[in-house]
């Protein structure tokens, strides 16, 4: 999926009917690759695994009652957090679907801090628009999988 997102050329149709090249920003790529690296390469599966990467010492395990991991990405306003979220949702979904023994999820709940953010998220996620309008889902046949056909989210 990383090669599809970040190394494959994507042409997106604009409102005026012309096409332009779509590229994710470097910060978006870095955020997505960091989460995937923590999970797939470093094997971070819980808060204890993740805390090994906290150099500040400001966070401790007793701050988190939950047993599930929290992959937190700090990004500035306008840096594309929604796009990163869509990529990580797709990655988690397909990891669970295609990787034997995956502990990731195929079901997701988005929670917004206020109505303004909720409205922005809805404009992207209602009807799964962001997954099909942006090059989130690889074409069927890419890397031997039927990504678009297998993407069955309700």
UniProtKB/TrEMBL annotation:
Keywords: ATP-binding, Helicase, Hydrolase, Nucleotide-binding
Location of the Helicase/UvrB N-terminal domain: 28-127
Keyword Acetylation among record annotations: no
GO MF assignments: ATP binding; DNA binding; helicase activity; hydrolase activity
Protein name as it appears in the record: Type III restriction-modification enzyme helicase subunit
């Amino acid at each position: 999926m990383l090669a599809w997102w970040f190394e494959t050329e994507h042409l997106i149709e604009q409102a005026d009917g012309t096409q332009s090249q779509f590229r994710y920003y470097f910060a978006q790529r870095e955020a997505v690759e960091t989460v995937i690296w923590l999970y797939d390469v470093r094997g971070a599966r819980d808060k204890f695994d993740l805390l090994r990467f906290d150099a500040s010492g400001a966070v401790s395990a007793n701050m988190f009652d939950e047993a599930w991991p929290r992959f937190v990405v700090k990004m500035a306003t306008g840096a594309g957090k929604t796009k990163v979220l869509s990529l990580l949702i797709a990655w988690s979904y397909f990891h669970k679907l295609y990787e034997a023994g995956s502990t990731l999820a195929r079901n997701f709940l988005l929670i917004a801090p206020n109505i303004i953010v909720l409205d922005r998220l809805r404009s992207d996620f209602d009807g799964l628009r962001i997954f099909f309008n942006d090059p989130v889902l690889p074409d069927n046949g890419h890397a031997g999988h039927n990504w678009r056909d297998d993407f069955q989210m309700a």
